[in-house]
Amino acid sequence: MRNPATLEAPAAVTASAKVDVRDNETALALCGNQNENLKLMERRLGVRVGQRGTEFHLSGPSDAVAFAVRLLENLEGMIRAGRPVYREDVEQGIKVLGRGAESLQEVMLGPVLKSSGNRQIAPKSIAQKRYVDSIRAHDIVFGIGPAGTGKTYLAMAMAVAFLQERKVKRIILARPAVEAGEKLGFLPGDLQEKVNPYLRPLYDALHDMMAAERAAHLVEEGVVEVAPLAFMRGRTLNDAFVILDEAQNTTVEQMKMFLTRLGYNSKAVITGDVTQVDLPTGKLSGLSHARAVLKNIEGIHFSEFSDLDVVRHPLVQEVIRAYDKAEVAQKEAQAAREAASSASVAAPESRVAPVPPEAAVG
Description:
By secondary structure, the chain is of the alpha/beta class. The chain contains 13 helices and 11 strands. The protein has helices at residues 24-31, 36-45, 62-80, 87-98, 105-108, 126-137, 151-164, 191-209, 212-221, 252-259, 286-293, 314-346, 357-360; strands at residues 14-20, 48-52, 55-61, 113-114, 120-121, 140-144, 170-175, 224-228, 240-244, 267-272, 300-304. The strands form 3 sheets. The protein has a 6-stranded parallel β-sheet with strand order 8-7-9-10-6-11. A 3-stranded antiparallel β-sheet has the order 1-3-2. A two-stranded antiparallel sheet has the order 4-5. It comes from Myxococcus stipitatus (strain DSM 14675 / JCM 12634 / Mx s8).
């Protein structure tokens, strides 16, 4: 009898399936530009996807084929509901269904806003959907997680939507002007010119959501204000949608100052990544402190994002994981060195055995 350990593993069970979307327009929308959506499914799921007219033929491992069928049917449902499907939607659709969502429609339908290019801005993950819902339901919301998870972008979209629906009268966008390697004093120009590079990402997001001329007019009229956090001191912000970005770089005092600016009929969204603090060593982040002391206050909500919610280039997710892994390894190595050092200090010193008196006599 052969040893079970030497038996060859059985070949993966293969299967095939067919999905018929019944009309050419939907089939073309599912394929994407130059079949990029189908190619992405093949790479991510390990299946073969072929198209013949309105039919999609799938083959590969049975579990992967079943998942691909479900993905295609969900994407078809989104297209029929009037939601365009792009390559990044397929990428996020795989994540959303893979994390247990019943359907993509419940997460990704219902746009927050139509951007200046007439493209719908909507949640692309379960965490993003909960984040958007929490902004609608609460007056103060913290969005905490790694770069690329859409924290600031969706907050901006919600702010513009609230302004368009006349739920608020103005939008205020703030950032702490904390150096990440460069020094403000070495930048050319006056104070406003020095801090503008720190505010540029907020301007970029704003211009992505409305025509540049419209955005410039609103900024000129003071309906939209983009300013360093320091400019918030001493103000009361009524009828406003206020966003504090890069909040991990606030001090405890700055965070308290910002949160106490909120007036009547206003919302505040605070976003940041507690793993990317640029404050001086030993200085406590106001975002980390707020998460600890405000978590049980009714009306304040904390939305947490992970690397699984990254909606930028797929490699961004891998970069975040690699850095997290390296940081854990570094901390473990430091802990091992400290433990070894403590053990050596605690060990009794070796002493030379004393010479008996009689041996000392010549």
